[in-house]
Amino acid sequence: MTLSKEKAGALCFLVLAIAYGMEARQIPLFPGDELEPFTARTMPIALSWLTGIVSFLLLVLPQREETDDILSVFRGLNWGRTSILIGLMIFYGFTLSPLGFLLSTVLFLIGGIYALGERRWSVILLSSVPATVGFWFILDKLLGIYLAPGEIFTMLGAN
How many angstroms separate the CA atoms of 116 and 28, rounded? Predict the structure, then answer.
């Protein structure tokens, strides 16, 4: 069996796409949404299909630098940076409700950009804050999707 870094990554993404697609079908729908063309399930299912198709194509199409040693594919990868980014994603998941979308997303992006090697704080802040505020504006103001401000801000406002 020949395996390259690209094919190992594609295999991981294929498994992830299948699992994500199976979970996306469990998303509950509001009554009457069964006949709607666009529901809460539409984008997750489309994303899982798209990821699955691309990763499957990467698996079956020929690649350069193929090897017979499966373990050699994983040597030389930056596992430290990957672990930091996974930790940041877990942190983001846990802080989304207490801190709210804006603050937790800004903190996640700042940490991610810093972990990827950028050290200029002007670049970090000028890329994370406007991107988060812009995405929040699109979701909340243009599309009407309510994003809770966070439990901390709700408690501060109630006093």
Answer: 36
Residue for token digits 């193929």?
A: 66
- How far apart (Å, rounded) are the C-alpha atoms in residues 42 and 64? 36
Name the token pair of 40: 């809460």
Give me the residues paired with residue 67 across strands. 3
Q: What is the spatial distance between Cα 84 and Cα 92, in angstroms, rounded to a whole number?
A: 12
Q: What is the pLDDT of residues 100-110, one digit of tens each?
A: 899 999 999 99
The model carries a pTM of 0.61
Contact by Cβ (8 Å): 92, 81: no
Question: Residue range 114-129: average pLDDT?
Answer: 93
Alpha-carbon span 155 to 159, nearest angstrom? 7
Rounded Cα distance between 13 and 18, Å, is 9
Distance CA 108, CA 125 (A): 12
Give 51-91 pLDDT, tens digit per residue: 999 888 888 776 666 555 556 656 666 788 889 999 999 99
